[in-house]
Amino acid sequence: MAKDKVEETSELQWGLLCRGEFSQVNGIILQKKVCDCWDKIWNFQAKPDDLLIASYPKAGTTWTQEIVDLIQNDGDTEKSRRAPIHLRQPFLEQIKMTYSGIDQANMMPSPRTLKTHLPVQLLPPSFWEENCKIIYVARNPKDNLVSYYHFQRMNKSLPDPGSWDEYFETVLAGNVVWGSWFDHVKGWWKKKDSHPILYIFYEDIMKDPKCEIRKIMEFLGKNLKEEVLDKIVYNTSFDIMKKNPMTNYLNEITMNHNLSPFLRKGIMGDWKNQFTEAQNKQFNEYYEKNMADTSLSFCIEP
C-alpha cells in the first residue's frame, strides 16, 4: 500500500510540473536558472585533487560515475550505496530549489569527484588552472541522440523534444541543451592534447568493460586485484545498475519513468529502431561534413 501511495503521489506531482525556461551562455542553450547563476558557476574554485567526469548528456555519464566511485572505494558496494549518485558526485551546473551542484561541491571534503555536461569552452577556468584530472566519456552520435530524445521526453527539467522527426531537425541545427554533439565531443577531444584527460568511449566499455575499468583505475592511480575488477564489472552492468536505487534516479520527481526509464536500454545500435532510411542518409552526410576536421572517430555499427 505504501509503495502504491508513493507512486500515486509522484504521478500527481509529475502532472503539476511544467517545462522550465531556457536561455543561452555564449550561444549554448542552458536552463535559465543556470544562466542566471552563471557567474557563480564560472567562478567555481576547483582543487588540484578534484576529479571531473564530463560528457554530453546520455553518453554513459552515470555508468562512468558508478565505475569511478567503486574504484575509489576498492569495489566496496556498501560504500557506493551510501547515497544516490548525484549526491556522491555533485553535478556542477545543476540548480535545484533547495540546493545547487556548486553549493554541494563547496561543502564536500577533498578529494571530490564532480560531474558536468558543459562543453569544454564553458568549463570553469579553475579546472585548467589547477590541472585537475578529467574523464570524458563519449558515445556514437546516433545512439546518443536517440537516448537523449527519450530522456527529454521523460525529464520535465528539459525542453519538450516534440516528435522524433521534429527533434531530428533540432539536433541537426544544434539547438539542444548543452549545445551541438559535434562541437562537444570535438572540443573535449582537442583539449586532451594539452590537459590530463582520459577520453573513453561508451562502445568500448560495452565491448570490454574490464579493460576500460582497468584503464580508468590506472588513470586514477589505483591498483586493484583482478577479483575486485570483476566485482566492479558485475556491479556496473546495466541490469544491476537499473535495479540499484542509488543509480536509477527512480525517485527523481522531474523524471517520468513510466514514459521512459532513466536507464532505458543500454545497448548499441538502438538508433536503427528510430532513424528512417532518409534520416540515416541525411545524418551520415552531416556527420561526414562535421567530422572532417578531427581525428576523432566512433563505432556506430554494433
From TrEMBL:
The keyword Transferase applies. It is found in: Cytoplasm. Its EC number is 2.8.2.-. Keywords: Cytoplasm, Transferase. One of its GO terms (molecular function) is aryl sulfotransferase activity. It comes from the Eukaryota. Transmembrane segments: none annotated. Its main location: cytoplasm. One of its GO terms (cellular component) is cytosol. InterPro entries: P-loop_NTPase, Sulfotransferase_dom. The keyword Acetylation does not apply. Residues 48-294 form the Sulfotransferase domain. GO terms for biological process: 3'-phosphoadenosine 5'-phosphosulfate metabolic process; doxorubicin metabolic process; ethanol catabolic process; flavonoid metabolic process; sulfation; xenobiotic metabolic process. SUPFAM superfamilies: P-loop containing nucleoside triphosphate hydrolases. Gene3D superfamilies: P-loop containing nucleotide triphosphate hydrolases. Belongs to the sulfotransferase 1 family. This is Sulfotransferase. It comes from Aotus nancymaae.
